[in-house]
């Protein structure tokens, strides 16, 4: 009896959601106002993080910018203030270091206030075949690409829960949805980041903190520097993404409180095929899309300051 009742209830909820989605397609959903919200962006020194900072500044948000690249971060702060007369604060933070994250987080709370929109954007890519990846780089990849998300959320989520107000944004990757040759550590960390964000979203709903929103972003390659040398076999099917367009898409997703954003939409279809095809056909699909060879000419970046700037990397 419970099974029948639960099934009918579930069907009703699905129908309601479908109708709401249809209505939102016809009548644009009201976007939330972020003026006065305290927005923290990790990896803010350049690229995507810098673009997001400038876009949030134009909407009147208070910016908290984190990056290990102090000079680039200060420049982002200057550009944001130039865009609009807003409050912006730049902090040097090594997001591979848990204690430093907690220390700088405490400093932010004292000097700026409680963060209400947290964008975990900082990341690193090694870009080597599995057996060629140094052990310390595997550890660094996980420290920055996923464990930093745990520590920033632990630092800032309690105040969001207390107010039942906030937004958690995870910049994952299409490589957090499908494995790619030459990106074993990166893919694993991005799968983990996505899983963490999704689990946290369900936990918040379980405890009725539904005013705390979650957005998970999964983009393909961006035309930026940290994935320099990577290629896409068929640009018409899977084009390299323009950072400006991706930044705007992320901003819109946050304002519209979308949960999942996969860029481009073609990847969603590819994921569907992955689930229904045989192993041999999946390999053939990977070969067709160039998944085996996209990292063959990878160059990337090597400096310590740039390695944390997710905004300088191309997502996959």
TrEMBL record:
Q: Report the superkingdom from the record.
A: Eukaryota
Q: What GO molecular function annotations does the UniProt record carry, in alphabetical order?
A: oxidoreductase activity, acting on the CH-OH group of donors, NAD or NADP as acceptor
Task: Give any Pfam family that matches.
Answer: adh_short
UniProt keyword Oxidoreductase present? yes
Arranged from A to Z, the UniProt key words for this protein are: NAD, Oxidoreductase
Q: Which SUPFAM superfamilies match?
A: NAD(P)-binding Rossmann-fold domains
Can you quote a single GO CC term? lipid droplet
| InterPro entries linked to this entry | NAD(P)-bd_dom_sf, SDR_fam
Spell out where the chain crosses the membrane. none
The entry's family comment says:
Belongs to the short-chain dehydrogenases/reductases (SDR) family.
Protein known as: Short chain dehydrogenase/reductase family 16C member 5
């Amino acid at each position: 009896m419970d099974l029948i009742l639960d099934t009918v209830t579930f069907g009703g909820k699905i129908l309601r959601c479908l109708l709401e989605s249809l209505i939102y397609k016809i009548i644009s959903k009201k976007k939330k106002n972020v003026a006065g919200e305290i927005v923290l962006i990790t990896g803010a020194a350049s690229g995507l993080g810098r673009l997001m900072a400038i876009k949030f500044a134009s909407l009147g948000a208070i910016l908290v910018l984190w990056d290990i690249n102090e000079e680039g971060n200060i420049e982002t702060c200057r550009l944001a203030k130039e865009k609009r007369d807003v409050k912006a604060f730049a902090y040097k933070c090594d997001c591979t270091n848990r204690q430093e994250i907690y220390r700088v987080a405490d400093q932010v709370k004292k000097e700026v206030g409680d963060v209400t929109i947290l964008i975990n954007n900082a990341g690193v890519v090694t870009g080597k075949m599995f057996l060629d990846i140094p052990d310390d780089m595997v550890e660094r990849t996980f420290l920055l690409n996923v464990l930093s998300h745990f520590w920033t959320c632990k630092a800032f989520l309690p105040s969001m829960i207390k107010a039942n107000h906030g937004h958690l944004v995870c910049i994952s990757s299409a490589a957090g949805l499908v494995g790619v040759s030459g990106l074993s550590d990166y893919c694993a960390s991005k799968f983990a980041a996505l899983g963490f964000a999704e689990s946290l979203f369900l936990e918040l709903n379980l405890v009725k903190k539904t005013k705390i929103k979650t957005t998970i972003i999964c983009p393909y390659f961006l035309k930026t520097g940290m994935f320099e040398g990577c290629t896409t076999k068929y640009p018409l099917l899977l084009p390299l993404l323009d950072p400006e367009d991706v930044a705007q898409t992320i901003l819109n997703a946050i304002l519209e409180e979308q949960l999942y954003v996969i860029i481009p939409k073609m990847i969603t279809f590819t994921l569907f095929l992955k689930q229904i095809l045989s192993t041999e056909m999946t390999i053939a699909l990977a070969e067709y899309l160039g998944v085996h060879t996209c990292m063959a000419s990878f160059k990337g970046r090597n400096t310590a300051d740039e390695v944390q700037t997710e905004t300088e990397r191309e997502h996959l």
